[in-house]
Amino acid sequence: MTPNQVRARLIERNSNLAKFSKKYGFEARTVYMAISRYVGTGRCPRGILTWRILKKLSQEIGQPVIDGLDKLVNVDNP
């Protein structure tokens, strides 16, 4: 999945990065940076906050945003 695909999935659900950030109490810039740094790169985040952001984002759009995250995050259970 690419960062643009993540944004598209949010738009399909009448949301965007700013609304997502506000809904879960994250800074919009932090969410943007997490997506830019890890989605579609094959890299795995090490920070707890980044994991939380990517986990919530996966749950919000209903599919894992990075490879292997689906094994660690149950996207069916919000």
Q: How would you describe this protein?
A:
This protein has about 80 residues and is an all-alpha fold. The chain has one domain (about 5-70). Helix content is about 60%, strand content about 0%. The chain is globular, with a radius of gyration of 11 Å. The mean pLDDT is about 85.
| Pattern of helices and strands | HHHHH
Give the number of helices.
5
Number of domains: 1
The helical percent reads 55-70%
Layout: helices, strands, pairs:
Layout: H1 3-12, H2 17-24, H3 28-38, H4 48-61, H5 69-72
Task: Identify the notable features of this structure and list them briefly.
78 residues; mainly alpha; 5 helices
Short description:
With 78 residues, the protein is an all-alpha fold.
